[in-house]
Amino acid sequence: MTTASSHVLDAARGLPAAGLAVTLVPASGPGAPADDGAPPAARHAVTDADGRVAWGEVAPGRHVLTFAAGDWFAAQGRDTFFGQVVLDVVLGPDHTHVALLLSPFAYTTYRGS
Hints:
The protein has one helix spanning 69-75, and strands spanning 2-10, 15-16, 21-26, 43-46, 52-58, 61-67, 85-91, 96-103, 106-112. By secondary structure, the protein is mainly β.
């Protein structure tokens, strides 16, 4: 097992993206965590006041992170180009931190520490 976390920042406002729904699901196919025959267990979370989610222990391998950007922007009365931001990432044997810098019409992501 390894650990993972996420951090979302509202790049347009220079603030944490608090209250944004995020889902983490083991991917299928090459590089995915070992398949035990059970359907992949989705984990659901909402970013805290600092825009962070601590996922705790997860299996290393490919996972899909889905950020509900459209709902989050809509709740603030802001237009956006994105309904969701979907990232297919590989969680390594050590802690993996996935950062997302989000604005209404662009985003960037990186593996943090």
